[in-house]
Design goal:
By secondary structure, the chain is an alpha/beta fold. The protein has two domains: 2-46; 51-154, 2-Layer Sandwich (Nucleotidyltransferase, domain 5). It is 32% helix and 24% strand. Mean pLDDT is 76; it is low at 61-67.
């Protein structure tokens, strides 16, 4: 036990406010808090999606420094997904029945692209105004699940 002495209670009508603090339970509680923070920090990293914001004037921007090998570009609009590359090919994945987003078709299409070109892991994502943030995160999750690790979020084209 540790004690804190305040010097009161010397007989002049003041009550002693000395306190006994049990240190063993306090140390146990402190270690439990530290372990909780360590475990949640690991889970936070496992559940994260890495994405980069492509801002105009960024010196490392792929938009400012075009190359011969352009990445896959995915545009999310109110009608579904529009996938295109710099070669001029374009694929539309429309909304499924009842206006739901067809993430299964998106994952299948991305998996097929990865099978044809496993070396390219770059994708640029852009969304129209009014598209829900959850739909963008769902699309980014589909990219991560199919092996696209270099995701860049860009403004509207």
């Amino acid at each position: 036990m540790a004690s804190i002495s305040t010097g009161g209670g010397d007989g002049h009508g003041k009550k002693s406010v000395d306190a006994e603090i049990p240190l063993i339970p306090f140390i146990d509680l402190l270690l439990c808090c530290v372990m909780f923070l360590l475990v949640t920090a690991v889970w936070n990293k496992l559940a994260s999606l890495d994405a980069h914001l492509d801002a105009p004037g960024n010196p490392t921007s792929e938009m400012d420094n075009p190359s011969d090998d352009l990445p896959l570009t995915v545009r999310i609009d109110h009608d579904g997904y529009q996938l295109s590359t710099g070669l001029g090919d374009e694929t539309r994945i429309p909304l499924a029945a009842e206006g739901n987003w067809d993430t299964v078709a998106l994952r299948e299409h991305l998996a097929e692209r990865r099978r044809l070109d496993p070396s390219d892991t770059r994708v640029i994502v852009t969304a129209d105004d009014g598209v829900e943030y959850a739909q963008m995160v769902t699309a980014m999750d589909a990219f991560a699940g199919t092996g696209y690790s270099a995701v860049t979020v860009a403004g509207g084209f």
